[in-house]
Design goal:
The protein has 400 residues and is α/β, with parallel strands linked by helices. The protein has 14 helices and twelve strands. The protein has two domains: 136 residues, Aspartate Aminotransferase, domain 1 (Alpha-Beta Complex); 248 residues, Aspartate Aminotransferase, domain 2 (3-Layer(aba) Sandwich), CATH 3.40.640.
Length: 400
């Protein structure tokens, strides 16, 4: 008997996100051994308290709860006053003069990416992404009959490899999508490299006779360490689109608040804004959550205590280094992406599970031979996992 589920979605469930697979494995282990006995580094769920301004914003919403339409439909692009607040925020962050007309508020950065792809992709057009990458990008592209392509990054630093990117560009390339700070590597692409990328895209756009869009997915922008700076992209290339959310900066992942910011130098920006406004609606998002929108405006100049994430990063780096793992120190975000001992990332993840440690194989991020650890967990979890990391590594060390 044939399935009622589409063939495409059936295939998706078979190659479902490794992150979700690890989450389900974690639930099983926790039921068997208890929550405190399992060291779960699989999910990038921001665990820090929201800044005080979030609570203050929520109090203001409660005062309006009895008013008509307090929680009714709002404009598909977000309330004008909220878009104005985001425009001021982006102008300061990116160093460009931008107005609310270049801002569309969305249901998180994932909603922003899907609305963008629906607006710009024709069947068979390509989206080029440096690997490793956020696991669900490929699904977002295929949602709209696009073709997902990857280019290698520098294996020693995870910095962009422009030669690899150029070799992967074709006349069918519609979007180059980058993520900085990067999930899963924590790399922050340098301004020099981003300027060279902009030059490359200008040159190839002229060659192809149409612009290649540069989409920057930046939900980890505020999580940068050691005084690292995340370079602004809007001033570098006229066909840049910034996609962002407040999930990490305000610990509001569940409120699904994001936005699209279009370069004010893009000649077609008003046409593209209208298209994204349409796709934001017809994809079923309709509008972003009203409560989250109001909280976002109240707290837009705040952020979580990044020092806590930095302490956790330093502790995990110490533990991994002492155990003997090879890794690139993350400059931002809240992930490590070490090399998998023995080279088989899936086998090593299974070995970690024997020590009740949960990570995610690099295969799920388009980069076999590595594994991801999320350090958005309490320091005690990191500390207590130290012996397990050592034991798992020893299992793969060659016999002397």
């Amino acid at each position: 008997m044939s399935s009622i589920v589409s063939k495409q979605i059936s295939s998706y469930t078979e190659r479902a996100s490794w992150i979700r697979k690890m989450f389900e494995t974690g639930m099983q282990l926790k039921q068997k051994y208890g929550n405190d006995a399992v060291y779960d580094f699989s999910i990038g769920n921001p665990d820090l308290p929201a800044p005080p301004a979030v609570a203050e914003g929520l109090k203001e919403i409660l005062k309006k709860a009895g008013e008509p339409f307090a929680f009714g439909y709002i404009p598909n692009a977000g309330s004008p006053w909220a878009r104005e607040a985001v425009a001021r925020h982006v102008a300061k962050e990116q160093g460009v003069a931008i107005t609310k007309e270049e801002i569309i508020l969305t249901c998180g950065a994932a909603g922003a990416i899907n609305a963008l792809f629906r607006a710009v992709l024709n069947p068979g057009e390509e989206v080029l992404v440096p690997a490793p990458f956020f696991a669900e990008y490929c699904f977002y592209v295929e949602n709209f009959q696009g073709v997902f392509k990857t280019a290698a990054t520098n294996p020693d630093t995870f910095e962009l490899d422009l030669e690899s990117l150029e070799a992967a560009l074709t006349p069918k390339t519609k979007v180059v999508l980058i993520n900085t700070p990067n999930n899963p590597t924590g790399q922050i692409y340098s301004e020099k490299t981003l300027r060279e990328l902009a030059d490359l895209l200008r040159r190839k756009s002229a060659e192809y006779g149409r612009p290649i869009l540069l989409a920057a997915d930046e939900p980890y922008r505020t999580l940068a360490y050691d005084h690292a700076v995340v370079p602004p992209l809007l001033p570098l290339y006229s066909h840049t689109i910034v996609l962002n959310s407040f999930s990490k900066s305000l610990s509001m992942a569940g409120e699904r608040i994001g936005y699209v910011a279009l370069s004010p130098d893009m000649p077609e920006r008003h046409e593209l804004a209208a298209a994204i406004l349409m796709t934001n609606r017809i994809l079923g998002f309709v509008n972003l959550p009203v409560i989250g929108q109001s909280i976002m405006v109240a707290a837009i100049d705040s952020k979580v205590n990044v020092d806590i994430y930095e302490r956790r990063r330093n502790l995990m780096a110490k533990i991994l280094k002492e155990a003997g793992y090879s890794f690139v120190m993350p400059k931002g975000g809240f992930y490590f992406f070490p090399k998998a001992p023995g080279g088989d990332d899936i086998a090593f993840i299974h070995r970690l599970q024997e020590e009740l440690i949960l990570g995610v194989p690099g295969t799920g991020f388009g980069c076999p031979g590595y594994f991801r650890l999320a350090f958005c967990v309490d320091e005690s979890v990191i500390q207590h996992a130290a012996d397990g990391f050592k034991k798992a590594l020893r299992h793969f060390e060659p016999e002397k």
